[in-house]
Amino acid sequence: MVVPGCSAPGLWVRGFGQCLGSLFTLFSKPLCSAAAAASQPLDAQRLAERLRAQKQQQKTKEPAPTNPVQRRVRELVRFTEQLQRVHPNVLAKALSRGIVHQDKELVVINKPYGLPVHGGPGVKLCISDVLPVLAKILHGPKAKPLHLCHRLDKETTGVMVLAWEKEVAHQVQELFRTRQVTKKYWAITVRVPVPEAGVVDIPIVEKEAQGQQHHHKMTLSPSYCMDDGKMVRVRSSRNAQLAVTQYQVLSSSLSAALLELQPITGIKHQLRVHMSFGLDCPILGDHKYSDWNRLAPQKLSAGILKKLGLQQSKARHLPLHLHACQLTLPALQPQKEELTLLCRPPRYFVNSLRRLGLKMPSRDHSADEEAAQPGAQ
């Protein structure tokens, strides 16, 4: 760190090595009397911030991975970190470039990966924070804020509906609550479910994970179990919620599959729980529900790791491969038709399909470069 001044003995400052992982030596040029009077002392907080900035610059100078998959994973990690640091205006502009549908009542966006819908502990920026800015970008400086109609998990990508008026938002929310909205998701799963099409009808309940105090997960609460080869009805938890998921395999290989999922109910993390604990086919990149007893990165087979070009130590960076691809809304007004909204998967999803030998359905077949909407990563 160079502090302007004239000629006098140099000052060596050493510190913060243990906090930042390396030892830095800061040189400051001598201070003359006039400059010293005008300058402010460099306190510990400012010094630490500048050291962090220097360390970050060193990271950016590290050679990029030669493997294209590892390079893409690194880009995605950097992208999700940037989403929490960008200015709300920048994020709103990115969302406006990924608009799927817009009319006098609704705005439909392609939600990017890693972006929370609502605020919470540790969340610096979310979609609800930028709705006023997004509205002004679309309708001018006097536009009223847009309203959320439903939510998607932070790690889920795809169709997300916003409304211009609060009354319309309430109307769409009621359609979701009464299960009049048809939702379809694509998911890449580890292993292939048997049978290849069916319905998972198992209640779900939230419980504290074994050996992990204060950490809760959603899990199955079946109404029946096997006892000495016989199916016996068991007493369900009073907190269990009805959860029904329809699924169908669209494409498969020896170790993975592309599934179309249609949740009939809307329970928290329903698709992830039913795939992992109901069908024993966890969604690729689901580090929370791949193992009930552990909170650790998803354990992948050697075959999948080889196809993806990844090492197990880097599997923690794999994003969740769950995409809201289609949503059908009933007519909001008389003499209007139902609205079907389609949303292409992000680029990382398409790349994983290709590497795992899975095929996109023909109705959404497109070139890899066109597979991601602008702003989606």
Automatic annotation (TrEMBL):
Q: Which InterPro entries match?
A: PsdUridine_synth_cat_dom_sf, PsdUridine_synth_RluA-like_CS, PsdUridine_synth_RsuA/RluA, RluA_PseudoU_synthase
Chain ranges of the Pseudouridine synthase RsuA/RluA-like domain: 106-276
PROSITE patterns registered for this protein in UniProt: PSI_RLU
Q: Does the keyword Mitochondrion apply?
A: yes
Taking the first listed entry, what is the main subcellular location of this protein, grouped into a coarse class?
mitochondrion
**Which UniProt key words apply to this protein?**
Isomerase, Mitochondrion, Transit peptide
Entry's Gene Ontology cellular component terms: mitochondrial matrix; nucleoplasm; ribonucleoprotein granule
Single annotated GO MF? pseudouridine synthase activity
Q: Which GO terms describe its biological process?
A: mitochondrial tRNA pseudouridine synthesis; mRNA pseudouridine synthesis; positive regulation of mitochondrial translation; rRNA pseudouridine synthesis
Reactions that this protein is recorded to catalyse: uridine in 5S rRNA = pseudouridine in 5S rRNA; a uridine in tRNA = a pseudouridine in tRNA; a uridine in mRNA = a pseudouridine in mRNA
Kindly indicate whether the keyword Isomerase belongs to this entry.
yes
Q: Which domain of life is it from?
A: Eukaryota
One of its Pfam families is PseudoU_synth_2
What compartments host this protein? Mitochondrion
Assembly with partners or alone:
Interacts with 16S mt-rRNA, mt-tRNA(Phe) and mt-tRNA(Met). Forms a regulatory protein-RNA complex, consisting of RCC1L, NGRN, RPUSD3, RPUSD4, TRUB2, FASTKD2 and 16S mt-rRNA.
Job of this protein: Catalyzes uridine to pseudouridine isomerization (pseudouridylation) of different mitochondrial RNA substrates. Acts on position 1397 in 16S mitochondrial ribosomal RNA (16S mt-rRNA). This modification is required for the assembly of 16S mt-rRNA into a functional mitochondrial ribosome. As a component of a functional protein-RNA module, consisting of RCC1L, NGRN, RPUSD3, RPUSD4, TRUB2, FASTKD2 and 16S mt-rRNA, controls 16S mt-rRNA abundance and is required for intra-mitochondrial translation. Acts on position 39 in mitochondrial tRNA(Phe).
Q: Which family does it belong to?
A: Belongs to the pseudouridine synthase RluA family.
Protein name, per record: Pseudouridylate synthase RPUSD4, mitochondrial
**Gene name of the record:** RPUSD4
